[in-house]
Amino acid sequence: MKKRLLLALVAIVVLQCRRYPVNADRVVAGLRDALQHTPAVRYDFVLEPGGTDLSEVRDLRGTITLGVAALPNRQMLRVDATRKPLPGERVPPEHFVLTSDGATVRMRSDREQTLVDSPLHGMGGLLLNRRVPQVATPFRMELFGGRFHTAGVAELDGTTCDLLEQHTPDDRVQVVVSISRRDHLPRRIVITTTDGAKRGTTDLRITNLTVLRGFGAPLLSIDAPPAYARHELTAGGPARGQPAPEWTLPSSGGPISLASLRGKVVILDFWATWCGPCRASIPTVRRLYETYHAQGLEVVGATWKEHNEPDAFAKTMEMHYPHVDGNSIGHAYGVDNAGIPNIFVIDRNGIVADYFVGWYGDETAKTLESDVTHLLRDGRLPVTLPSPGLRPPSPR
Fold this sequence. Notes:
By secondary structure, the chain is α+β, with helices and mostly antiparallel strands. It is about 20% helix and about 35% strand. Helix 4 (about 275-290) packs parallel to helix 7 (about 360-380).
């Protein structure tokens, strides 16, 4: 009788432990430890949008292989997926394969019959955000920087999961993450937004998760039929190795043209006073100008969709290099598609050596300065232009 009673008590304890979550901080600590010691994972996923205002979020499903321990500094991943068209789009679903080695993003689109690539600091970052939104998010430790609370227990992917819930300070965004008790890795993330223009829910479900020993280089290789068009992805502007579109524009010091700067290394920086990332980038651009101007660097700031007082702003920010109204040349450089900040580095012969879309702090600053110093010293960058889809690119 005592033995039966003991077994019954053990069963009750087990059932209660499966029903009720443990301490949220301990779950997050277990997750952090698991992420730090997991070299790579492969899993199937389904990303479904919900809500009338999520008109730009696509239904996406497929398989991803992810280098976990390398994140967030190197985005090692391979995605083989199909995404459905947006409501109202009269196009078939698109199957694509996308890879990133942390320096270059490459993608094959079977619907478009293209094989494209781009540096991560160019269009590659936007390509990742547009093609695989939130698919790798549960494995990024920065997601778990805030305080989580327990929100229940669920059976997912054949394992018992603790549900952790977090709200932004303004309560406009709610995040619920499901963490497996077996391996302490995520199995689901639901993000609910109640903020007007982005009202709705995205639901990412993970199944068939397998922990791998590492992310192998062969995963970066993408096969494509010879008939597929192969090129560097841009926003409609020039690619690396192509001539920079010519221009002549008025400035406070008189007309200035790209042709007049031939023989110099030129930074053409599209910015605006209302752009937060632009404000963050200006101190670096200013420092580069002050440091390397005597060695042959010229900087031209090109304002974009500016409605404030750029002259006063430039004075406040001590931007001693010339700036022009860039609206008339933005289309030629693809700025109307890529947004700002958008920085082009042009060599002494008027050829685009590199370009930067967005600003990612020290990482972008270091690459930009490296470009400038190599062009001033050697006249070219140390990395040759990649052959899209033919071999994994070398990190910069």
